[in-house]
Specification:
The protein is α+β, with helices and mostly antiparallel strands. Helix content is 41%, strand content 19%. Strands 1, 2, 5, 6, 7, 10, 11, 12, 13 and 14 form a ten-stranded mixed sheet that branches. The chain has a two-stranded antiparallel ribbon with strand order 3-4. The longest helix is centred in the middle third of the chain and has 20 residues. Bound molecules: adenosine-5'-diphosphate, zinc ion and magnesium ion.
């Protein structure tokens, strides 16, 4: 981190991080905060902005925000002001967001990170409280757009740093530190995947040794560490090119394109377009390119958005799109079909992370594919795969001693069959395999069993 991230320019970064607080209820009303429930089931006159409804500040939110302020060494102000920030969005029923502007509840702390040159303090400009908007849901079938106000009024903290970060690595170190502090304080799930932790990244360059900051560009709404790092690298390149060719950087809002690893300036119309969901055609192309899946699998996965979203979330957790797709399209689909359910139905409580975990246990050789398949219906119902495995002692058996014993027992019970195999009827080996698997309740590693069987039969 001590090395300059660009030979000619010093990189200057400031971060604005939005964090969902995990309070029981919303910031200004008593509606419960529930993630993933049926649309518009957690609303009331206040968060629907019905005339005459009055906001009442959530004490728990203030308490959580205070904890964050104290843990980051901020000065807490006994007096602070909430303000109306006007926007016109369909998912913002009041027509304004309640936020803090001139007098936030706290200012001036720091978060310490480790760098190669030792610890470094990243100064915080402020933390303020604000409420989140609702969510627009666009029907890709052309059936129009609808608004879900379950999220409307969710308490957020916005944590703003001074432009103290000097590289993408420092930005990452800061965000990870912040994440760990907030987790430790138990005030947020701090989960990027679910949008509990979103980040605007401000980047500028200046000549080494220069005193004044350069003009910054702002990368909006990045929601994964990988994209944050890549976007910063791409933006450094872009600005350096502009400066190298004698140009000046314009202050602007940018978006990041993961596929080409480039950033581009958002014009007004583009900003509106960027807010649209990805349309099916584009999604199909991207799935084929990004995950290397076959045409038929891509078509099935992208046919409906809830399944596509689940696939992507599980793949982010697990890493291998092909493995996730195989499990989803074969096993998970069968479980859901059996129950007349599909993704997108509020009754489906299945989390992408749970599928990723289950596949991970198979990858690690802890569960056999067959046992994992047996557990799947319960995992789909919300059970944790690792807990099920531990509670029921299902961990795969690869202990050769145990396997040898099981094979020996099966061979002793099937002397006649063993004779026939020795006589050339190789296929009967499968029947014996089946019996060993049954004996070990499907927990035996099939490869190891086959090897031992083949050896013992010919002994
Ligand atoms: P806005 O709310 O319009 O984005 P702020 O003044 O609140 O503007 O600044 C937002 C963020 O931009 C802060 O995190 C700050 O550290 C960062 N920032 C300000 N100037 C620069 C700069 N020249 N280079 C990089 N980051 C900057
Ligand atoms: Zn409400
Ligand atoms: Mg900003």
């Amino acid at each position: 981190m001590s090395a300059p991230s660009h030979p000619d320019y010093e990189v200057v970064i400031g971060l604005e991080t939005h964090v969902h607080m995990k309070t029981r209820t919303k910031l200004f009303c008593a509606c419960e905060l529930v993630y993933g429930d049926e649309p518009n089931h957690h609303t009331c006159p206040t968060c629907l902005a019905l005339p005459g409804a009055l906001p009442v500040l959530n004490e728990q939110a203030v308490d959580f925000a205070l904890r964050a302020a104290l843990a980051t060494h901020c000065t807490v102000h006994p007096h602070s002001i909430f303000a109306r920030k006007n926007y016109f969005y369909p998912d913002l029923p009041k027509g304004y967001q309640i936020s803090q502007f001139e007098e936030p509840y706290c200012t001036g702390g720091f978060v310490e990170i480790e760098t190669e040159d030792g610890p470094k303090k990243i100064r915080l400009t402020r933390i303020h409280m604000e409420e989140d908007a609702g969510k627009s849901v666009h029907d890709e079938g052309g059936g129009g757009s609808r608004v879900d106000l379950n999220r409307s009024g969710t308490p957020l903290m916005e944590i703003v740093t001074e432009p103290d970060l000097r590289s993408a690595d420092e930005a990452e170190a800061y965000l990870k530190k912040l994440q760990s502090i907030l987790r430790y304080l138990d005030v947020s799930e701090v989960d990027l995947e679910h949008g509990h932790f979103r980040c605007d990244v401000n980047v500028s360059l200046r000549r080494h040794g220069a005193e004044e900051y350069g003009t910054r560009a702002e990368l909006k709404n990045l929601n994964s560490f990988k994209f944050i790092m890549e976007a910063i690298a791409a933006e450094i390149e872009r600005q350096a090119d502009v400066l190298d060719s004698g140009g000046t950087v314009q202050q602007c809002t940018l978006r990041y394109h993961p596929k080409t690893r480039t950033t581009s300036i958002m014009r007004r119309i583009e900003r509106a377009r960027a807010a649209l969901p990805e349309l099916p055609e584009a999604k199909r192309e991207r799935f084929a390119a990004e995950y290397g899946l076959g045409e038929r699998d891509v078509a099935t996965l992208t046919a409906a958005r809830p399944l596509a979203d689940f696939f992507e979330a599980a793949t982010r957790e697990h890493g291998d799109g092909k493995a996730v797709s195989k499990w989803l399209l074969r096993d998970v689909t069968r479980v859901l079909n059996d129950r007349d359910l599909e993704f997108g139905d509020a009754r489906v409580k299945f989390e992408p992370a749970a599928l990723a975990k289950l596949i991970g246990l198979v990858d690690a050789g802890k569960l056999t594919a067959s046992v994992a398949g047996d557990l799947l219906p319960e995992v789909v119902d919300g059970a944790d795969p690792a807990t099920l495995m531990a509670e029921r002692g299902l961990e795969a058996v690869s202990d050769t001693g145990v396997l040898e014993e099981a094979v020996a027992a099966v061979l002793a019970e099937n002397a006649a069959m063993v004779e026939r195999i020795r006589g050339g009827e190789d296929k009967l080996l499968n029947a014996l395999m089946g019996q060993v698997m049954k004996r070990t309740k499907g927990k035996a590693d099939p490869g190891a069993v086959r090897e031992i069987l083949a050896r013992k039969v010919t002994e």
